[in-house]
Amino acid sequence: MDINNLNENEVRTLIEAEKNLTNELEYQEIVNQIQQTLILSSHTYRTSVEDEKRKIIYQFQVHSTPIATRFSVGLMFIDNRIHLIRLDFGDDLRHTNNYGTDNEIVVLGSHAHVYSPAGKYISKNVIPISSIEEFKNIKR
């Protein structure tokens, strides 16, 4: 499987595999990595845990102020910095899909990035969290 060129089925298969892990990281290893990587920067707590065997980074961010209800959780491939999936939660979030085209649409609120690059200023489309059955009621 070429992680630089996944199709929709491969992306869904990988996400499903993450939901049903058979090779879990050891608890103490996770705690150690959180303790070593947890930082507070611009009112945001950030931490990540690397699964070196599978080359995936588990990322977590909590914005502590001024909006305590905004946070992100994501899975990103280490080698190419592509998010397999990243969930961004917050009622006041605003994301533009199809930026700069006739089909441009603004997605308000919590949303998911699926198989998208990590760069903030790279155009990418998102899916509203409310359209994902498992997450439609998550607010905080």
Strand order of the largest sheet: 1-2-3-4-5-8-9
Portion of residues in helices?
Answer: 10-25%
SS-based structural class?
A: alpha+beta
Radius of gyration: 16 Å
Largest sheet at a glance? Answer: 7 strands, antiparallel
The best one-word shape is globular
Secondary-structure element pattern, one letter each: HHEEEEEEEEE
Task: Work out the strand percent.
Answer: 35-45%
- How far apart are the first and last residues' alpha carbons, in Å? 35 Å
State the gist of this model.
The chain is of the alpha+beta class.
Keywords:
140 residues; two-stranded antiparallel ribbon; alpha+beta; 16% helix
Task: Give the secondary structure arrangement, pairings included.
Layout: H1 8-19, H2 27-37, E1 39-41, E2 44-51, E3 56-63, E4 70-77, E5 82-89, E6 94-97, E7 105-108, E8 111-117, E9 127-128
Antiparallel strand pairs: 1-2, 2-3, 3-4, 4-5, 5-8, 6-7, 8-9
Description:
- It is a single chain.
- With 140 residues, this protein is α+β, with helices and mostly antiparallel strands.
- The protein has two helices and nine strands, in the order ααβββββββββ.
- The strands form two sheets. Strands 1-2-3-4-5-8-9 form a seven-stranded antiparallel beta sheet.
- Strand 4 and strand 5 form a beta hairpin.
